[in-house]
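Chain A, query sequence.
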Amino acid sequence: MSSPGHDADALAASLRERFGEDFAMPDALGDAGAVLARLSARAVHRRYADRPVDPALVRLLCACALSAPSKSDLQQRDIVIVSDPAIRTAIADVLPHMPWVRAAPAFLVFCANGARVREVAALRGKPFPNNHLDLFFNAVGDAAIALATCLYAAEAVGLGGCPISEIRNHAALIDRLLELPEQVVPFAGLCLGWPAAKTQISPRLPLALTVHENRYRHGDLAHALDAYDRRREALQPYESQYQPERWGVAARYGWSEQKARQYAVVQRADFGAYVRAKGFVLE
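Chain A, predicted structure.
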């Protein structure tokens, strides 16, 4: 069993690796230190042991995920457990660069649901004047919170996970495979399994850029990115450069160059049309 002192040390060490700075540890962390240490050290897992995940455990994790906060208690999220091998294969086939989608012992799809609250209004004989952007926005937020909570619950029992946002590259296909009704759209997949190996902490942008007090501060982005790129390249270098045939080979290749290249290519430009075709109004 870990001690509060050990937990605080582990928390401080993982935060130092994550953000590149030292954090003062409050005196009264107590047993919460173990929870925070686990959260601060979390990592994505894409390689899994050849060991099944009990369906009862998957269902339990779904229940924990759906216990998460929901905007105005509207509960605008659903989870589809993909246990049919044919459906899983069809999803994996369109994501060949992500072999973990095929290999993971369990795979879930988190959906944003704007339909249920409209159906409730109709059942109760009430008008529903809120079919506009906020309906979609709230449903997506609910799905995201449920996904994050499911991942946290999974890690608490020793599982590892990897969210799969790229299912939205094939939203219409996923829609057909899962037989999603109007105003229910896929938000992200989630691979789950028992980790085959320990994975490294991914360094994050410094809190000076991402945590603000009272007012948003722009800061010196170029200077902060240069320091972040250098730190991340030293700790977790990219195995290859993105589209070198188009952009050439950079002498220094950090996070900012990777993301700039990644988003220099049009991605999911048809997603808005798909969402509108599903009955959402985005104005």
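Strands lie at 77-81, 106-113, 160-164, 184-193. The chain is about 45% helix and 10% strand.
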